[in-house]
Model the fold of this input.
Amino acid sequence: MGKRLRFLAKTAGVALIGFSLMGADAGTDRPAASSASQEDQTAEDGLVCPRETVKLPMNAKTSLDALFQYEPYLYYEFANPKLARVTSQGIAIPLAKGTTQVEVTASGYEREAASCSFRLQIVDPVKFKSASAPKTESGQTKLNGRKAYVNTIVLPQGMPAGLGLGKDALGNAEAMKAIVTRRQASYAINGTYFAAYNDEVPLPYGTLVKDGELLFNTGSVGTIVSFAADGTARLDEASPSIAGGFDGLYDSQRRWSASYVNRRAGSGTTIYTPDYGARIGTDKGVMIVVSGSKVIRVAKGENAKIPRDGYVIVNQRESLAELKEMFKVGRKVHYRVTYSNAEGRLVRWNDVVTAVQAWPKLIEGGKVVEKDGADAKRAARSGIGITKDGRVVMVTTGSATHGEVAELLRAKGAVDAMGLDGGASAGIYSQGVQLFTPGRNLSNVLLFGPDLR
Done:
């Protein structure tokens, strides 16, 4: 018999967990907490769900995993999927007001499966309040003895963050201001590098997370700026892993894996979501079409349509017969995404709702780590950093080296920082004003503001 599961869960006051609209000191308006006992409760013989109703504002997101002791193999199912959806990282995304039952299943290698349920109530939106006001500065400064015009934005801890895409889909590019306006962002900076030349499809070159869902990855470990459900910003070196399961379970008998999400056809197993477009864009391999969490079709050699409520798994290793046996039509299928650093240790990213991978790393632990070396040339540059107290610092300038951008960020208090795409992609926006306009349309943009859509 496998080991019994041991989980720790909040049994009261859980309405306060994981809102994306506040930082640690933001003073956000919240629903009232339960008057029940605030003591933690452990269970020796299974999974423990909250007794009290978990409340989530319409304009917030929360990590359901945060209700439990960290465990990567949790599966959630909503009785009413019209009220909320859950991402592959366990983030609950509100869709409409109301109350629904949430069934939780936990499983893993050498463990018995366990399940429990709790009530999730989607309530009215709340307003973001910060302890400090955002600050925007534009003007000339000296960089190594020469004059340079620099644009800087400093945002308070917990400011809601999001990822904007050209025309709201991968493989497109659009004017930065159009993306910002559509998403009602107050502040923005260009994101990661992307294919921008020779009529290439403008897909990104770095890992992206949008609304708690792995949107794109390349399989490499790299520096990533991330924003959690509660607005906390951090810089990590991480790479995603994708573990799939069947029928709500992940174990030795019910598992599969993938290497990539929304990457152009190549070796390995790739998952294509609706963010990629209407179809997968390849006829190589075996296509497993999933809709409403169930397998609806398994075929070979066709450019499959991606369901709006599902995804397509493209496998180029196993045979059609093998995959038809594993992915039987009607079978429930799902996957979870976890992240590991360069040493292979798990990075606790189950609460991340927005993330962008770019390079180079500029500052680590308060020290500049990027030396100009081979890339000492000056160009339009953008960078993003995080201060010791959790504020976000963004810088764009028309002419600087990476090392000079690092010094600009450190001067504003950043203790960790990285570069973003530059050159014609560099752009920064503040409260209706395009402070620095990109010289081309952009694939992806980091967005911030209390009214993000």
In short: The CA atoms of residues 138 and 151 lie 4 Å apart. The longest helix spans residues 402-411.
